[in-house]
What we know:
The protein is mainly alpha-helical. The protein has helices at about 45-75, 75-105, 110-140. Belongs to the amino acid/polyamine transporter 2 family.
Amino acid sequence: xxxxxxxxAKEKKAGKSKQVxxxxxxxxxxxxxxxxxxxxxxxxASYAGAVFNLSTxxxxxxxxxxxxxxxxxxxGPGILMIIFMxxxxxxxxxxxxRFSKAGKTVSYGGVMGEAFGKFGRILLxxxxxxxxxxxxxxxxxII
Length: 143
């Protein structure tokens, strides 16, 4: 006894087909007029909005991570670790800016492709996915 027919089922298509975004596209438009007709009712992201969004993300991650770090390491090593991470952050931002100017790239994927080739770009994308899954888990814990 079977449920349904034995004939192969036809594939159903989704309502809208989405276009694949170009991985070398800039995160923010270079000019306001570039995306006038493409986005329905969306005026585009501003630099102030991007800075605010990144700042709230960094502050939120710090609020979650710093107390646990200080508890595990203690006061002295915890403060030294914070200072060490500040130097690493400064060095990584400097390298990103240097490679983006040298390679004339405007996206993070483009910078990684210029600096480390195809496999470096793929490794970066895997790391971003792992990082996003970790952030989602933290947000679920908070909620």
